[in-house]
Amino acid sequence: MIWLWLILLVAGFVLLVWSADLFVEGTAALARNIGVSDLFIGLTAVSIGTSAPEIFIAITDSFKFEPDIAIGNAIGSNVANMGLVLGITAMVVPLPYDKRILRSELPMLLIATVLAGICLVDLYLGRVDGIIFLTLFGFIMYRMVRSSKKSEQLPDELETALSDIPSMGTGRSSLQAVIGLVVLVISANYLIVAPARSLAGALHVEVFDVGATIVAVGTSLPELVVTLRAAIKGGYGIAIGNIVGSNMLNLLVVLSVPALMRPARLTLMEFVTDYGMMFLLTVVIALFAYAVGAKKVITRLEGALLLAAWVGYIVLKYT
């Protein structure tokens, strides 16, 4: 039965990623057709769309069950983004930090990570925590709007995403958005959340752990593809910016879904092991950027260290 659940999960990840792209393209094209500015589209549909799989998994899990998978996926995706995605990418192509990331985005990720720790240290994710997360997210969006208006330029990763939006009529874009939304809901419900819970039972592990590892890796694979492709083409700012932005969204938007829909408790082990690893990797990538004598580049050796930390985390979870 374990193989059956794994096959369903793989199929679910493929459909989830495909339908998320379909949904984001459709809604962004529709918004453009009705006169919404590229600035607003880039800062909402496109940026939040990169975390659409995690958001819909969180909604589905929180609506039907205790949100173990939702919380584990949000934290585990950040661990996978930094350890697996940045690690592998930096081993292929060393990644220099963009000035904008050093000045603005990485400090905001550090603040969001510390804030999440303060909210979760009581081992409870509640509605007040969700409101705090969304308030900080709103502040970050406000800063991005002001910065983009002053410079009259969107961040590189949003410019790239906007350029990929196809031109289509209002009818087609509406239909594409609806189809993407329906497939997102179905795949998140029947091919991710339900099989992940069954897989946890078959492996005799906690549901939270499956969400933080197997589901998190599945939802981080699109980031790996985008980050690798951007780095190989020389878009280093896009490569690191994509991960930093995705991690902020996971903390401030994805975690706010279970917080507001179905408040839940964490175990001390989950907080220490999972949040602890996320915090540690965030501090490490900050040290690569800000430490005295740092080259402000994630080198191949540092990428190997990030990947080794992620592998150690997975081994720890299953032993």
The fraction of residues assigned to DSSP E strands is under 5%
Structural class call reads mainly alpha
Spatial order of the strands in the main sheet?
A: 1-4
The average pLDDT value, as a whole number, equals 84
Q: So how many helices?
A: 13
Distance linking N and C termini: 21 Å
Low-confidence stretches: none
- Spell out the helices and strands N to C: HHHHEHEHHHHHHEHEH
Total strands: 4
- Determine the fraction of residues in helical runs and give it as a percent range: over 70%
Shape: globular
Q: What's the Cα radius of gyration?
A: 19 Å
Largest sheet: 2 strands, antiparallel
In a few lines, what is going on in this structure?
By secondary structure, the protein is mainly alpha-helical. Helix content is 83%, strand content 3%.
Please, could you describe this protein's structure?
The chain has 319 residues and is mostly helical. The chain has 13 helices and four strands. It has helices spanning 2-33, 38-49, 52-64, 68-92, 99-120, 127-151, 156-163, 170-203, 207-232, 236-254, 256-261, 268-290, 300-318, and strands at residues 95-96, 124-125, 264-265, 297-298. The protein has a two-stranded antiparallel sheet. It has a two-stranded antiparallel sheet with strand order 2-3. Helix 2 crosses helix 7 (156-163) and helix 3 runs antiparallel to helix 4 (68-92).
Considering the chains and any ligands shown, give keywords for the structure.
319 residues, globular, two-stranded antiparallel sheet, mainly alpha
Write the layout of secondary structure elements.
Layout: H1 2-33, H2 38-49, H3 52-64, H4 68-92, E1 95-96, H5 99-120, E2 124-125, H6 127-151, H7 156-163, H8 170-203, H9 207-232, H10 236-254, H11 256-261, E3 264-265, H12 268-290, E4 297-298, H13 300-318
Antiparallel strand pairs: 1-4, 2-3
